[in-house]
Each structure stands twice: as C-alpha cells, then as structure tokens.
Amino acid sequence: MSRVTIIAGSPTPGSRLFGLTDYVRERLIQTGSAIDRISAAELPAEDLLRANFGSPAIKAALAAVESADAVVIASPVYKAAYSGALKTILDLIPQKGLQGKVVLPLFIGGTIAHLLAVDYALKPVVAALGGTHILSGVFAVDQWVSRLENAGGYALEEQLRERLDEAVAELNRELARDQLAAKEQKQGQVVGLG
Q1: Distances in whole angstroms, Cα of residue 46 to Cα of each of 38, 60, 68, 108
Q2: How far apart are CA 79 and CA 41, in angstroms?
Q3: Which of 84, 150, 109 is nearest to 20 (CA)?
Q4: What are the pLDDT digits (tens) for 64-114?
Q5: Within 13 Å and on the Cβ side, how many CA atoms surround 177?
Q6: Is 103 helix (H, G, I), strand (E, B) or coil?
Q7: 0.85 exceeded by the pTM?
Q8: What is the rounded distance in angstroms from the CA atom of residue 167 to the CA atom of residue 27?
Q9: What is the largest CA-CA distance in the chain?
C-alpha cells in the first residue's frame, strides 16, 4: 500500500482548492492508498509562522511528509505564484525532505495565464527539497469548481475530473514502478548476501 500526503496550501477553509484535493483524495483511497492530509488552514497559525518545530501539529505534519511515498502539493495561485501559506509549510520540510518521493502539483487560479506558476514558482523549491520526480500535475481555473452550498462539498467540471483522473492514474503508475524497483533492489541485496 502506498502512502500519500496531500499538502493543501490555501489559508481559507472553504477554498475551491479543496474541491481538487478532496477529489484526488477519494480517487487515491479507491485505488488503495493511505492518505495523510496537511492543511495550512488547519495548522496553528502561530506555530506555522514561527516555525515551531516543538508543536505537536507541526511534528505530525512533518512526520506525514517523511513517511509518504508521494506528496500532492496543492495551492491557489496568487500574483503568479503559490500561496504564502504553502511556502511556510514547505519551509519547514528538511532540505532533502522530498527526496525519493513522487510529487504531484495541483494548482487553481483565476485564469489560465497563471499556468506556468508550477514551473516557475514550485519546481525550484521542490528541487531544493531533494524532489526530482515531479509529475506534470493539474492546473484548474476557479470557474471549473463550484461550491455546493446546501449539500456541502464541490462540483467539478467534467474536463477537470478527467484531468484529475489522469493525474491520479499517472501517480499510481509511478508509485507502482517505485515499489517494484524497491522490491527488485531488496531481492538483489538478499541474493548478494547468499
């Protein structure tokens, strides 16, 4: 079973970003992954801003990233970059904290013009954290996600659901490939000992 940690960098609890992360979370659960979730909107703000490594919530968040096989990094796009709330979470992760992990970006913004925020803003930070396996991810436009006021939750446009399904399938393929490589390496080490 793969372990996936979803980091949601929106400071707003009702953000449309959660339409994307909730959808991906459900799809990953359906395919057998165990999911941990870190939300900037739910972490204690003072602990997050002051980088309080002694905080139980911060410790739990960092442990979730450390134990993950894959990390979904999700954020709204503000002024052509990901949120400051996401940056504060990423700043807490140790220097090689994303090494060996598959990273799937999920971004949402007001216009498709912010599409390159993943390449220009996120990828250099992921690389600085040791991440080398970054999937293409999904960028969504706000209008593709609607809040369901009475029922709760979110409605996603069909094209967005299809793109998220493709991203989850790609993530699962990469995780399966990594697990197979680790198994083969382990078997090779056992054979070498005999």
Answers
A1: 16, 16, 25, 26
A2: 19
A3: 109
A4: 999 999 999 999 998 888 899 999 999 999 999 999 999 999 999 988 766
A5: 11
A6: strand
A7: yes
A8: 10
A9: 64
